[in-house]
Design goal:
The protein has about 280 residues and is of the alpha/beta class. It has a single domain, classed as TIM Barrel, CATH 3.20.20. The protein has 9 helices and 12 strands. An 8-stranded parallel barrel has the order 3-4-5-6-7-8-9-10, surrounded by 7 helices. Strand 7, helix 5 and strand 8 form a beta-alpha-beta unit. Helix 1 runs parallel beside helix 2, helix 4 crosses helix 5 and helix 8 packs parallel to helix 9. The longest helix has 14 residues. The chain is globular. The two termini are about 30 Å apart. Bound molecules: phosphoenolpyruvate and manganese (II) ion.
Length: about 280
Amino acid sequence: MISRSKQTQKADLPVISTFPVDIGGGLMVGGDQLILMAGPCSVESYEQTRESAEAIATAGGRVLRGGAYKPRTSPDTFQGLGRPGLEILRAVADEFNLLVVTEALAVEHVPIVAEMADIIQIGSRNMQHYPLLWAVGELDKPVLLKRGYMATISEWLSAADHIERRGNQRILLCERGIRTFDPSTRNTMDANAIVLAKQISPYPVIADPSHATGRSDLVIPIARAAVAAGADGLLVEFHPDPNSALSDGPQSLPLTSLSTFYAQVGPIAAACNRELV
Ligand code: PEP
Ligand code: MN
């Protein structure tokens, strides 16, 4: 197998072209289409997830996000539904012909998440959980690798290399914001990282303006900026009723914003010769 690693690549060397990743359903990430992965932070119930999936599909979305295994900072908060959550996700995604992206929080989750999801998410807190990276590296399944919120770009790309060395080349990097000195926002979207990761690695880059900002009023503007910077896709939290969300309500857009989201982000994608789907 030809290694797609790029750790020896320096910023002053020629830009590496993005290797598009087939995520199934006729969708390629890193090509002409700019893929929106939308849905709630957490799968909370069948009704909440089905309502989300229906609205996303109606708006033209193709990929449903939602966490069943949740990496929560406090053990006193909602920890996710676990396996029943995966079953809900799969059922509603199949009903509306959507793909599923969801997180495997631990090595022991990998087999069931691989069975139920189309894309396996590795969360920010787990970016350097090497046994987890090796486990998803053994699969023939796309992996969305979130950047650690205190990881350098080089550390992030090395984490991707751990997956790639096990044989899985279907890697989607995800810039989800890094911790900075300013508490005004939850994190800071590192637009440099979107541009640089695409220059020095072959992996497509997804941007997550929800976790990058922590504020729903900033999500659309930062999504637009990320697309303009060259992001190949967006991971965005939407909820039927953000005020009652069991996780990440303040950064979640209501489902009623989906049409506004497409109307405001679509033209930026089009200006970059891409179609937002
Ligand atoms: C999420 O996508 O809901 C999530 C937990 O993201 P992160 O790992 O980036 O915090
Ligand atoms: Mn979240």
